[in-house]
Write a structure and sequence with these properties.
Radius of gyration: 28 Å
Number of strands: 8
Distance between the termini: 88 Å
CATH superfamily of the largest domain: VKOR domain
Number of domains: 2
Helix content: 55-70%
Number of helices: 15
Order of helices and strands: HHHEEHHHHHEEEHEHHHHHEEH
Strand order of the largest sheet: 3-4-6-5-7-8
CATH architecture of the largest domain: Up-down Bundle
Low-confidence stretches: none
Oligomer: single chain
């Protein structure tokens, strides 16, 4: 006769339900990681790219991709995700539907899922406190990781009665007994990871195009620096911030177009630092210190070295954290003491305010913003403008 406890015992679902649910979650994690890897690449290499989840300053996948925390040990974080989920699926391959083998490997899978989940917590804390922006697809991955943790725990509980430590030992012995299959699976995987780590292109490092001797540059009649062709039919005025990632990307993109298509474009630079200390539009910190960088650039312009300073600031300011004035002056060819004293020059601050005021009059509210024939374009230039350059 069965006891009441036997009648009330939870009966596990058929094993394939647990197996295929876990496999689906891991495959979904792999797919999302592949998407984020492509998105990370396009954020840095495609001047017009904007992901679907670039919704606001705080909910923005692109902001997360643009941060230095999106790269870990020489590879983008989502590329590591591709490796991790692939490894998980390789382990899952060793699970069989026979009674004895279906109990194996789940403790190892639980450990892998636990590692995924702990790393998700670390990334969430980085997004919250350091980047101050969240990626929707990253949050999806966090959910997948915790679901993998739950289902590997649940499957082990349903089909493996051994203690956790003993189960891990048996899992290791089980894989050792399938040494040939394990080697066939592990060697290509490890080789692929090593090759990826060794040869993956460092596209997130921008190489500043040099100011060539044959690339004209100067100052407009009203005192604003320009570069390109003085007589070009297409004139673009940019309002930019030296700590703005998209400004940085567009800076190099437009410079490369000038070099490839000489005589087609004239670019006029205007300062629009997203720094609440100088920009009255802002109520919270966005790019703290960018106002000071703009003043340094204005001083360099007065010494005939604006584009050298501008290129150097775009190349280094976002990653530097703080500015070493002596090193900056040395890199550009200016006197360090004079550069430091430029921050006390009211004329330079007045010029900065003049740029901001004219930006407000145009309707500029963020960076980068481009003005072409009286029309404003935020973030990037539309294809019809680029076509005028390359045709």
């Amino acid at each position: 006769m069965k006891s009441r406890n036997d009648n009330n015992a939870v009966q596990p679902l058929p094993f394939p339900v647990y197996f295929w649910t876990t496999a689906f979650l891991a495959a979904a994690g792999l797919a999302v990681s592949l998407y984020l890897s492509v998105s990370h690449y396009r954020v840095y290499t495609d001047a017009a790219y904007e992901s679907f989840c670039a919704i606001s300053q705080s909910i923005n996948c692109d902001n997360v991709s643009q941060s230095p925390y999106s790269v870990f040990l020489g590879l983008p974080v989502p590329v590591w995700g591709v490796s991790g989920y692939t490894f998980f699926l390789i382990l899952l391959r060793f699970v069989r539907s026979t009674h004895n083998e279906r109990r194996r490997v789940w403790s190892l899978l639980f450990c892998v899922a636990l590692g995924f989940s702990l790393y998700s917590i670390v990334l969430a804390l980085i997004s919250t406190w350091l980047i101050q922006s969240f990626c929707i697809m990253c949050i999806v991955l966090y959910g997948i990781n915790f679901l993998l943790l739950y289902f590997t725990w649940l499957t082990r509980k349903r089909f493996d009665s051994d203690s956790f430590g003993r189960a891990l030992v048996k899992d290791a012995r089980f894989l050792s007994g399938k040494r040939k299959s394990a080697v066939i699976a592990a060697v290509p995987f490890l080789a692929a990871v090593l090759l990826t780590w060794s040869f993956y292109p460092n596209y997130w490092f921008f190489e500043p195009p040099p100011i060539r001797a044959d690339l004209p540059h100067g100052t407009t009649a009203d005192g604003h620096p320009w570069i390109g062709s003085e007589t070009a039919e297409l004139v673009i005025t940019e309002f930019a911030d030296y700590l703005c990632f998209q400004c940085n990307k567009m800076h190099y993109y437009l410079r490369s177009l000038m070099i490839r298509y000489p005589g087609k474009l004239k670019l006029i630079h205007r300062h629009f630092p997203m720094d609440p200390r100088v920009n009255p539009l802002l109520k919270q910190e966005v790019h703290e210190g960018s106002g000071v960088l703009a003043v340094f650039a204005l001083y360099a312009a007065s010494q005939g070295k604006f584009w050298q300073m501008s290129d150097h600031l775009f190349a280094t300011a976002r990653s530097a954290g703080s500015i070493d004035v002596a090193a900056l002056a040395d890199a550009v060819g200016l006197d360090a003491k004079e550069l430091q004293n430029s921050l006390k020059d009211p004329v330079l601050w007045q010029k900065l305010q003049s740029d901001l005021t004219e930006g407000f009059q145009f309707g500029v509210s963020g960076t980068p913003t481009f003005v072409v024939n009286g029309h404003l374009y935020e973030g990037h230039l539309p294809p019809e403008i680029i076509t005028q350059i390359i045709d």
